[in-house]
Write a structure and sequence with these properties.
Number of domains of chain B: 1
Oligomer: heterodimer
Structural class of chain A: alpha/beta
Radius of gyration of chain B: 20 Å
Number of strands of chain A: 21
Bound molecules: thiamine diphosphate, iron/sulfur cluster
Largest sheet of chain A: 7 strands, mixed
CATH architecture of the largest domain in chain A: 3-Layer(aba) Sandwich
Strand content of chain B: 15-25%
Shape of chain A: globular
Distance between the termini of chain B: 58 Å
CATH class of chain B: Alpha Beta
Radius of gyration of chain A: 26 Å
Shape of chain B: globular
Number of domains of chain A: 4
CATH topology of chain B: Rossmann fold
Helix content of chain A: 25-40%
Distance between the termini of chain A: 43 Å
Number of helices of chain A: 20
Chain lengths: 576, 282
C-alpha cells in the first residue's frame, strides 16, 4: 500500500470528526503512520466540516494533496471536494439525493459507491445521527478494517451509546452483503510492532508541560487552544498541581506570574485574542525577570478573525508585543513530536533565563493527530532557576549584575531573600530607580542574558541539498509540506535546501547568515499576509528574499510549495 | 516564638508619599499587626498594582510583588495557591481595585482565597494627579471632569458582600486604632478579607479632608456578623462612612478546595508520568 488520503466531509453536528478520528486511530493501531487535518466552522451546529487522514507505511510529513477516498455525509460539498479526487479514487456518498455532476462521474476513472446512509439510519434504525456510524460500518467492510478493532474504538468514543454500535453493525452488514468491491484500497494493517503514540499538538504540549515540571496553569477558554487547559485540568491534580479557569486572560497570566514568583513552574495557553490581552503582563514578566510559559495556538486574525482556521500571523505580537522593549524567548515547533520537545525546553529556558517563553503553534498543528515514536520524556534534563543560597554570601540582591546577566533568585518563605519585584525600572536590589545609568544597565542585562541562546539550543533544523540553488526559510507547521516539496524537486533534478527556525526570538542570525550564504536565492514561506519573518530577516541581514505567503485559513500544500520552487528555479536558469 | 521588633518590618526604601497622606496610617498599622502576630518577614508577601497606594510593598521588609495596574488580586491569588503557607496581603487604590481591576474583585471574592485585600480609597486617581475614580461623588470637579462627575460611585462594601467575600470591613486612616484592630481580625480570618480603607489624599482631594471625614464617620452597630441582609442594608447608608466590620462568614477557601481535589486525585499515591504517556499509545 502506498500513501493514501481519506477525507470525510459533512455538516457540523453530523459526526464527521468522530468518524474521522476513529478511522485515524484504527489506522494507527494497524501500524500505519497517520497525520490528520481538519477544518470546521466556529458554530456548534451547521456549516461545512472536513476531516482528513493521510495514511502511509512511511512517516507522514504533511496533509498532502488531493484525495483518494472521499466520503460525503452531506451533498453540500460534493462538487468542490469531488474535484480533488485523484485517478482511481473512491467516492462514497449518501444516495439517492447526492447530486454528483456528470463531470466528476466521468472524470479520471473514479469509483462510485452511492450508499443508502440516511435510509439505513432513519428507516432501519430510526436514528438519524447514526449516519456516520453506518458509513463507518460500510467502510469497515469495504476497506477490510478488522471489525473488532472498530467496535472497540467506537465503544471508547461513545461508552454509553448502544445505538451507535447498532448503526455500525447495520452499515457493516450492508457493506458485506450488498456492496461489490470495485476499488483497490485495503487497510488490513502492516504488522509492525514499534512503540508509538498518537496525539495532537495540543495534547503533546499539555503532556510535555507536565513532564517539564508545570504544576500551575491558569487560563481562559479559546479555540483552538482550549484542549491544553482541559487536558491539564484532568491530569494536574494527581501530580499535585492545579488548573484554574480565570475571568479573562489578564487574570490568567497575572495568576501564573504570581505562582511563578512563589517558585512554581507555571503556564497559560491561549490564541491570538488572548495573547493581545496578555501583552502588558508579558512586559512585566520580562522586566521583573519572571519565568513563564505562554502557548499561542494561532488562528486566523486580526480581531476575532476565523476562530477555527489556521494562520501564522502572531509572530510580530509574540516577538515584540508589549510596550517598551521587553525581550523574551519565542519558540516554534513544527510537528507533534517537536511540540513535546520544545515544550519541555520552554520550561527549562524560562527558568534558566528567567523570562517569558512563548510557544507558537497553530490550529493545524494543535489539532492534528500524528503518530510519533514513543518519546523518552524523562530523559530530557530539567533545569530550574539559579537559586540564591543565604550562606554567608553578600547581601541578597535580586537583580545583581552578573557577567551572564542572570541573577540568583529567592522564593517567598525563604529567610534572607526578601525583596520586592516591580515593573518599574529598578536597581540591583529591586528598588525603583530611574537614573540614566540604571536604566541603561538593566536594559542591557535583560537583553544580554539571551545572547548565548541561539548557540545553546537547537535553534533551527536544516534539510535538503548542499549548495542549493534555492534556499527556503520557514517556521512552524509548514515544515512537512516543504520537506515533501523538496523531495519532489530533487527528483526533478533541482537542488533545494530549507532552514526551519525553531527559535524566533532572539533570531539565530549567524545560523541564518550561514544558510543564506550557502544558497543562490532565498524564499521565505509563511502563513501570513505580510511576511512577518521575512521582514525581520530582511532588516537583520539586509537581503531581499522572495516571499510565498498564504492567508487563506489553511496550511501550505506540498504541491503549491513545489510549483513555487519550480517557478523560482526556472527564472534563475533563465537569468543565467 | 521570639518577640519581634517593629523595626524588623521596615523596608530599606523610605515612603515616597506626601506628608499626611492617608496611606502612612495603613503602612504603620501593617507594621504593628506584623509585630503583634509575630510574622516572620519571609512569610509575608505584599502584592500591589499601580498608584501612590500601590507603592506600599517597597516600604516593608518582606517579599513583595509590585505588578501592573489592576491585576493585583489574580497575582496575589496565584502566589497564595502556589504556597498556601504564606501570608499574602494585596494592597491597592480605588482606581486599581475598583476601576481597571474591578472584574477581578468580584471573581476573587467568589473564589474566597485566604488573602487580605486592603484598598486605600482616596476617591480619586492620585498618581496621575487627581482624576475622577469609581468612588468619586457625582458633580465633583476633577481635572478629567471639569464640568462635574456624571456617574454614580460604586459601592465596594455592598459589592464585596454580594460577590461572596467572607470578611468585609471599612476602616479609615484617621482612626488608626480601629484600622489596626480590623487588620488583626482580617489576618485571623481564614478567607478573602476585604477592607475598604478611607485614606485621604491631601494633595489632590480638597473635599475629603481629615476634618470632614472624621466628622462624618461613625461605628457600625452591633448585629450578628453573618446577617447578610442587615450587612447590605448598612452598606447602603448614603454617607458611606460607617466604619467597622460589616460581614463575616466562614466558607471553604479555594486553597482548601484545591487541596481536596489534589488529595482525592492522589488517594492511590502520586501519579507516574509513564502511565500518562501510555494513554496515548496507538
Ligand atoms: C494600564 C495602565 N493605565 C494607566 C496607568 C496610569 N495610572 C497609574 S496610577 C493610576 C491610577 C491610580 O489610582 P489609584 O489606584 O486610586 O491609586 P492612588 O494613586 O490614588 O493611590 C493610573 C491611571 C497605568 N499605570 N497603567
Ligand atoms: S498624591 Fe495623594 S495619595 Fe499620592 S502620596 Fe500624595 S497624598 Fe498620598
Amino acid at each position: 500500500m502506498e500513501d493514501i488520503i481519506l477525507r470525510v466531509v459533512g455538516e457540523a453536528g453530523e459526526g464527521v470528526i468522530s468518524l474521522g478520528e476513529i478511522i485515524a486511530r484504527a489506522c494507527a493501531r494497524l501500524s500505519y503512520h497517520v497525520l490528520t487535518y481538519r477544518t470546521y466552522p466556529a458554530e456548534i451546529r451547521g456549516g461545512p466540516t472536513m476531516f482528513q487522514v493521510r495514511i502511509s507505511p512511511d512517516p507522514v510529513l504533511s496533509q498532502g494533496d488531493g484525495v483518494d477516498i472521499l466520503l460525503a455525509l452531506n451533498p453540500a460539498s460534493l462538487e468542490s471536494d469531488g474535484a480533488e479526487l485523484r485517478t482511481g479514487g473512491v467516492f462514497l456518498y449518501d444516495a439517492p439525493d447526492a447530486n454528483v455532476s456528470q463531470e466528476i462521474k466521468d472524470g479520471a476513472r473514479i469509483i462510485h459507491y452511492p450508499l443508502p446512509l440516511t435510509e439505513i439510519a432513519t428507516k432501519e434504525l430510526n436514528y438519524y445521527l447514526g449516519k456516520n456510524m453506518v458509513a463507518l460500518g460500510i467502510m469497515t467492510a469495504l476497506f477490510g478494517f478488522p471489525y473488532n478493532l472498530i467496535i472497540e474504538l467506537v465503544y471508547q468514543r461513545y461508552p454509553k451509546a448502544e445505538k451507535n454500535l447498532q448503526a455500525l453493525e447495520a452499515g457493516f452488514q450492508y457493506g458485506k452483503l450488498h456492496l461489490e468491491k470495485r476499488d483497490q484500497f485495503l487497510l488490513k494493517g502492516r504488522g509492525s510492532k514499534e512503540d508509538r503514540l498518537i496525539l495532537t499538538g495540543n495534547e503533546a504540549i499539555a503532556l510535555a508541560a507536565l513532564a517539564g515540571g508545570c504544576r500551575f496553569f491558569a487560563g481562559y477558554p479559546i479555540t483552538p487552544a482550549t484542549e491544553i487547559m482541559e487536558w491539564l485540568a484532568q491530569k494536574l491534580p494527581p501530580f499535585g498541581g492545579i488548573v484554574l479557569q480565570m475571568e479573562d486572560e489578564l487574570a490568567a497570566l497575572a495568576a501564573v506570574l504570581g505562582a511563578s514568583f512563589a517558585g512554581k513552574k507555571a503556564m497559560t495557553a491561549t490564541s491570538g485574542p488572548g495573547l493581545s490581552l496578555m501583552s502588558e503582563l508579558l512586559g512585566l514578566a520580562s522586566m521583573a525577570e519572571l519565568p513563564v510559559v505562554v502557548v499561542d495556538v494561532q488562528r486566523a486574525g486580526p480581531s476575532t478573525g476565523i476562530p477555527t482556521k489556521t494562520e501564522q500571523s502572531d509572530l510580530n505580537l509574540a516577538c515584540l508585543g508589549s510596550h517598551g522593549e521587553a525581550p523574551r524567548i519565542v519558540l516554534a515547533p513544527s510537528t507533534v513530536e517537536e511540540c513535546l520537545y520544545y515544550t519541555i525546553q520552554a520550561f527549562n529556558l524560562a527558568d534558566i533565563y528567567q523570562t517569558a517563553v512563548i510557544l507558537l503553534t497553530d490550529q493545524f498543528l494543535g489539532q492534528r493527530l500524528e503518530t510519533i515514536p514513543k518519546p523518552e520524556l524523562l530523559s530530557i534534563p530539567r533545569h530550574d532557576r539559579l537559586k540564591y543560597l543565604a550562606n554567608g554570601e553578600a547581601k541578597f540582591l535580586r537583580y545583581r549584575l552578573t557577567p551572564t546577566g542572570i541573577s540568583p533568585v529567592a522564593f517567598p518563605g525563604e529567610a534572607g531573600g526578601m525583596h520586592v519585584i516591580t515593573g518599574l525600572e529598578h536597581n540591583p536590589a529591586g528598588a525603583p530607580d530611574y537614573s540614566p545609568e540604571t536604566h541603561q544597565a538593566m536594559m542591557a542585562k535583560r537583553f544580554k542574558k539571551l545572547e548565548p541562546l541561539p548557540q545553546t539550543i537547537e535553534a533551527r533544523k536544516a534539510f535538503g541539498d548542499q549548495e542549493a540553488e534555492l534556499g527556503i526559510i520557514g517556521w512552524g507547521s509548514s515544515q512537512g509540506a516543504v520537506q515533501e516539496a523538496i523531495s519532489q524537486a530533487r527528483q526533478a533534478g533541482y537542488r533545494v535546501a530549507a532552514l526551519y527556525l525553531k527559535l524566533l526570538y532572539p533570531l539565530p542570525i549567524e545560523q541564518i547568515r550561514e544558510f543564506i550564504r550557502s544558497v543562490k536565492k532565498i524564499l521565505i514561506l509563511e502563513g501570513n499576509y505580510t511576511g512577518q519573518l521575512a521582514r525581520f530577516i530582511r532588516s537583520e541581514l539586509l537581503i531581499n528574499p522572495i516571499q510565498l505567503n498564504i492567508c487563506a485559513g489553511r496550511p501550505f500544500s506540498p504541491r503549491e510549495v513545489y510549483s513555487k520552487i519550480e517557478d523560482e528555479i526556472m527564472s534563475l536558469h533563465q537569468h543565467m | 516564638m521570639t518577640k519581634r521588633s517593629i523595626l524588623e518590618y521596615r523596608g530599606e526604601v523610605s515612603p515616597v508619599w506626601c506628608s499626611f497622606c492617608g496611606d502612612y496610617a495603613v503602612l504603620n498599622s501593617l507594621y504593628q499587626v506584623f509585630q503583634r502576630k509575630k510574622l516572620a518577614p519571609e512569610e509575608i508577601v505584599l502584592v500591589s498594582g499601580i498608584g501612590c497606594s500601590s507603592r506600599l510593598p517597597h516600604f516593608v521588609n518582606a517579599y513583595g510583588f509590585h505588578g501592573v495596574h489592576g491585576r493585583t488580586l489574580p497575582t496575589a491569588m496565584g502566589i497564595k495557591l502556589a504556597n498556601p503557607q504564606l501570608t499574602v496581603i494585596a494592597v491597592a487604590g480605588d482606581g486599581d481595585g475598583f476601576g481597571i481591576g474591578l472584574g477581578h474583585f468580584i471573581h476573587t471574592a467568589r473564589k474566597n482565597p485566604d488573602l487580605k485585600y486592603l484598598v486605600m480609597d482616596n476617591s480619586l486617581y492620585a498618581q496621575t494627579k487627581g482624576q475622577v475614580s469609581p468612588t468619586t461623588c457625582p458633580h465633583r470637579v476633577t481635572p478629567s471632569t471639569p464640568y462635574g462627575v456624571m456617574e454614580e460611585p460604586i459601592n465596594p462594601i455592598a459589592l464585596a458582600i454580594l460577590s461572596g467575600a467572607t470578611f468585609v470591613a471599612r476602616a479609615y486612616s484617621g482612626k488608626p486604632e480601629l484600622l489596626t484592630e480590623l487588620l488583626l481580625q482580617a489576618i485571623d480570618h481564614p478567607g478573602f478579607a476585604f477592607i475598604q480603607i478611607i485614606s485621604p489624599c491631601v494633595t489632590f482631594n480638597p473635599t475629603d479632608t481629615y476634618r470632614s471625614l472624621t466628622q462624618k464617620s461613625y461605628l457600625v452597630s452591633d448585629y450578628p456578623l453573618e446577617d447578610r441582609v442587615k450587612a447590605l442594608e448598612l452598606a447602603q447608608a448614603e454617607d458611606r462612612m460607617a466604619l467597622g466590620l460589616f460581614y463575616r462568614v466562614r466558607r471553604p477557601t479555594i486553597e482548601e478546595a484545591v487541596r481536596e481535589i489534589v488529595e482525592a486525585a492522589q488517594r492511590e499515591g502520586p501519579a507516574e508520568l509513564a502511565g500518562l504517556v501510555e494513554e496515548f499509545n496507538v
